[in-house]
Write a structure and sequence with these properties.
Blueprint (H helix, E strand, L loop, with lengths): L5 E6 L5 E5 L4 E5 L5 E5 L1 E2 L5 E2 L2 E6 L3 E6 L5 E6 L2 E9 L7 E7 L5 E6 L13 E6 L7 E7 L5 E5 L2 E5 L9 E3 L2
Parallel strand pairs: 5-6
Antiparallel strand pairs: 1-2, 2-3, 3-4, 7-8, 8-9, 9-10, 11-12, 12-13, 13-14, 14-17, 15-16
Length: about 180
């Protein structure tokens, strides 16, 4: 059975491609020739499981998958053995639930938080808040910035991140948090 709801992709410099397939609750890793090399995760609520797989990162030794929503967590799988993994709870935020993540060269994750759309905030301008989070140690987190528009492009380079201009003349309104 093939999944149909792809939520994220990541590619390594040596040509491996990771695909997050939400409806299968799996991360599939392919080589440059399109051969399936491994699968990570399964549907469920426990460690190593995904309920809402939305974001992935692939390194030479690890495969990270983020389960978004109120129970946000990051599963870190050993790339050579899908049965060896650790699960890290994303620290709660007053800025909503985690929806996406990006691994930075510093080892920190840039995590986007957003409140769910509901009848209480229907007249408010929705925003995303971005926080830097460590999944090792004491789970420190730092506010990075708020973005009042729900569209943006994150560019990871030189160990950090930057926000790119929007296409078609749209604008980002970024406010430093904290």
């Amino acid at each position: 059975m093939q999944g149909t709801f792809i939520t994220d992709l990541d590619v390594t410099e040596d040509g491996f491609i990771a695909v997050a397939i939400n409806d299968l609750a799996k991360i599939q890793v392919y080589n440059i020739d399109g051969e399936l090399k491994n699968e990570f995760g399964r549907g469920g609520r426990g460690p190593g499981d995904f309920r809402n797989l939305m974001s992935i990162e692939l390194t030479d030794s690890l495969v990270f998958g983020m389960d978004s929503g109120p129970s946000g967590r990051i599963n870190a799988f050993q790339r050579t053995n899908p049965e060896k993994y650790q699960t890290f709870q994303i620290p709660r935020s007053t800025n909503g639930s985690p929806v996406r993540m990006w691994l930075l060269d510093t080892g920190l994750f840039l995590v986007e938080f957003r409140h769910a759309f509901n009848n209480r905030n229907i007249n408010e301008e929705l925003k995303s808040t971005y926080e830097l989070i460590s999944i090792t140690g004491n789970g420190e987190k730092y506010f990075a910035f708020d973005n009042k528009m729900n569209e943006m492009f994150i560019n990871q380079s030189n160990g950090g991140f930057s926000v790119s201009s929007m296409a078609f003349g749209r604008q980002n309104f970024i406010v430093l948090a904290g």
